[in-house]
Amino acid sequence: MDARATLIYLLRHGEVAQADPRRFIGHLDVPLSARGEAQCLAQARRLAGASIAALYTSDLVRARRSGEIIGAPHGLAPALVPDLREMAMGRWEGLTADEIRAREPEAFDDWMARVGEFPFPEGESVPDLLRRAGPAFDAIVTKAAGSAIAIVAHGGTNRALLCRALGLPLARLLALGQDYGALSVLERQRDGWALRRLNERPML
């Protein structure tokens, strides 16, 4: 790592209790499953030797708890950043994809076709998400200039932030995998961001 570079360990929270069948969770405040706790412990062991100066998470319990586990080897408690929350999914929160498809087939097909711009009914779109998460990320990076930090957030939030950092269109959102407990690494140097790792799953 360049002495002037800023390193971001960007993690998705561990698996949640309602993960199976897959649900649209959004702002619902659900806890980690036992597997999710184990995933975070595995990443904590992996990052134990890294020089992490600070740790930030969304304020939702699944991200906060993940951050507590990952930060423990460094003596770091997570600083909570509500703007790093997952995208608000409105009236689809708590429903599975099959349930949404059965209830609102046209809207579901529209979401699949326009994932980078579709506004969730009574919720947010990806551009809405970036309007709050983007400035929050920038403020964290500015404060962390020249050091390494960890951010624990959510699948949609991380994908959107990665697209933004790498200059990718939001239509490519789902091409950037973000599995439960997975690690991505961004490095910032004078000429912008470089993606060093993407969606590396915890070794259980």
Structure keywords:
6-stranded mixed sheet; 204 residues; 35% helix; Rossmann fold
Fold and architecture overview:
This protein is α/β, with parallel strands linked by helices and 204 residues long. The protein has a single domain (6-200), classed as Phosphoglycerate mutase-like (Rossmann fold, 3-Layer(aba) Sandwich). The protein is 35% helix and 18% strand. It has helices at 34-47, 61-71, 97-103, 105-113, 126-143, 155-166; strands at 6-12, 52-57, 79-80, 148-153, 183-189, 192-200. A six-stranded mixed beta sheet has the order 3-2-4-1-5-6. α1 (34-47) packs parallel to α2 (61-71) and α3 (97-103) crosses α4. The longest helix is centred in the middle third of the chain and has 18 residues, at 126-143. The model has no long low-confidence stretch (mean pLDDT 95).
